Amino acid sequence: GAGVSQSPSNKVTEKGKDVELRCDPISGHTALYWYRQSLGQGLEFLIYFQGNSAPDKSGLPSDRFSAERTGGSVSTLTIQRTQQEDSAVYLCASSLTDYNQPQHFGDGTRLSIL
Amino acid sequence: QKEVEQNSGPLSVPEGAIASLNCTYSDRGSQSFFWYRQYSGKSPELIMFIYSNGDKEDGRFTAQLNKASQYVSLLIRDSQPSDSATYLCAVNTGFQKLVFGTGTRLLVSP
Q1: Rounded to an integer, what distance in angstroms lies between the CA atom of residue A10 and that of residue A89?
Q2: pLDDT tens-digit series, residues A1-15
Q3: Record: contact A56-B97, CB cut-off 8 A
Q4: Which residues does chain B have within 8 Å of residue A101's beta carbon, measured at their own beta carbons?
Q5: In A1-114, which ranges are continuous DSSP H helix?
Q6: CA-to-CA separations, A22 to A33, A90, B59, in angstroms, rounded
């Protein structure tokens, strides 16, 4: 079946602009996660959604970052007033449930802030 | 102390050898353990997961878990140059989030 789909695959924008990144999880997966990976670095957890529960936002680095998940499926990560330090690959993953299930990653969005 | 620790490497092995990748974790309540492979410029790809003490084999890959020692490893038999990548260990500590190690870079030389 189809995997996790992310768009756009690449985004270049100017400092101060807002950006929206989209993630479409694997059909039937109730848990959805966002991570950030800077060049040569490990994965940094940002936020996670499970079903209709309130999201765990504990990893969001600042209030410029927000995410929503509509209808328990597609998620959008929004970064307002982008800064150069926001440049990274943003990865989305989904899992069947949030309990001891493997996460499957999309191809990521490479974000470059000029 | 980091929650999930891996040697950054690189770990260099000749083609055909066994590559042994190790990971330790700090939370004794951890319940599930995952190995991901990440090629340069690509996203992580799930290779193995293990929940119980002991070994789990899948083709050339074997995951080993020792909860008493808080240690999980990945063995790759008959290593191939195409196995050259960064291997990420991830641990579910019971809070429904995976905690990732920073990865071990594996180089398999022909």
Answers
A1: 9
A2: 589 999 999 999 999
A3: yes
A4: 32
A5: none
A6: 12, 10, 35
